[in-house]
């Protein structure tokens, strides 16, 4: 066999070996970043919510009665912690009340020196609008820049500030 | 997958089964060794090797059986484990076959044993047995949590397996290490199987005891020191591994067992202090044994001065040649079939097979192999992360930890990073026990990952949801 052929084969073999390695890594990568899957799980949760009947898709009660009640367009589907130690955490909104605070039985347990043990709660009202309510915390809950005194509806994407933690509702 | 049901939990992520990805990679993993085989034949004889079709078909058949069984019995398993193991097994076959062609090794074996018998056909047979065991594990082990019941039985079994080579008449002494037993015409290395069995014990034991080991501790200089009585198990394992080292002259197995226990302790308790304690204990043990046992002493000498000890003991010829092989390989290697790694002599196709990779495929090839091993370990650790039960977590972490330690100990020994130990590179090295045991290990990891990645059964909330829909007209 000529020297050239063998050299080419040798380099080809190494290339093929590494190609295999990169293909394998690509498979791992597609396995890791399966966010599409997560979103599908969340949307499915949102679909299931009106069906459970705990909360009505407010402006159109007849639709709810027709059984195929869909959520109002533009309603938030998840709560995202955007700043603070828990930053990146998401909770799917499924019609349940979300409690925030340092107490261990809170939905989101805040590890934050400025948070009270039962700090605030976020819940849907009759119309499906999400409401944030301060539960008499020491340092207060802020929606945008105003300190909350009464239960207040949450606009989509508005930052709710508790101590060093910022959370917002997203679609 | 449950795309039609209304599951209200975010945990019910419908992970795709990815069996077709596995099939594609598997075809790739069979073609690469066939290419390598042709390359070796062309380099040595200038012709296509005659056995190529046989080995190619054999490897393809084994891979196909493995894939079909996984598809049927573990449909959600990790897609990478089987192809990676198949590739390593196939390349191991090629490398062993390549060393069989060496006139030097053939003559060496004729002088020593009177006849030369090639190792590659045996290795193919052992691979078939390995795949059979792989299939057997997947068929019989429907749920890895069953193994939890055998926690203490597996401890006894592992101890028996470890002590078998010491039984007179059964154990055989090969080049100073007493790690083989001989039954009928076959010699078996029980340590390779004990590795898996003892992982069952460690996982079951630590799952029960981890709270005591993690929480009952005092803080001292930034470390959580465990109570005296909690040190018991680690002391016992330490003593056992030292005994293996002293009586069986097997540095590798003893390191593997102690290391695996420390790794699993750390995984179970999340306490860095266990790693510090473990490192200190292994350092003390290693120094104590190295200064007393002659066999280990010679290995350490060969490690410290691989080219100088020709004059003193002559026990370092292999490691010297191995380092030369890595050096002459350079970055891109000499090409398959064109190196001189057969100068290593005995065990060139077993403990030292990685030197052949180093010489003929160069740094690029060595790195590719190490990354492939690394990927297997990564998939194992990933399986441990994804597993939902603590036993499965610890078991998968322990198995992949042991696998990682084994790679480190063998590759490090052959390259002169640490003293040489008598262990085998999984799937590459010639030797039945290692191939068979590692296929069993992969089967267990595939079983755990199948359980971990299987989508959760439809949430109990969904019947409620259906009822609400129907009841409210």
UniProtKB/TrEMBL annotation, chain A:
Domain FHA residues, every copy: 98-148
Protein name: FHA domain-containing protein
Taxonomic superkingdom: Bacteria
Region: Disordered, residue numbers: 39-78
Keyword Transcription: no
Keywords linked to the UniProt accession: Phosphoprotein
A Pfam family that the UniProt record links to this protein: FHA
Coiled-coil regions listed in the entry: none
Biased composition (Low complexity): 48-58
TrEMBL record, chain B:
Entry keyword set: Cell shape, Membrane, Transmembrane, Transmembrane helix
Main location: membrane
Molecular function GO terms recorded: lipid-linked peptidoglycan transporter activity
GO biological process: cell division; regulation of cell shape
Protein localization: Membrane
PANTHER family given in the database record: CELL CYCLE PROTEIN, PEPTIDOGLYCAN GLYCOSYLTRANSFERASE RODA
Protein name stated in the entry: FtsW/RodA/SpoVE family cell cycle protein
Organism of provenance: Streptomyces mesophilus
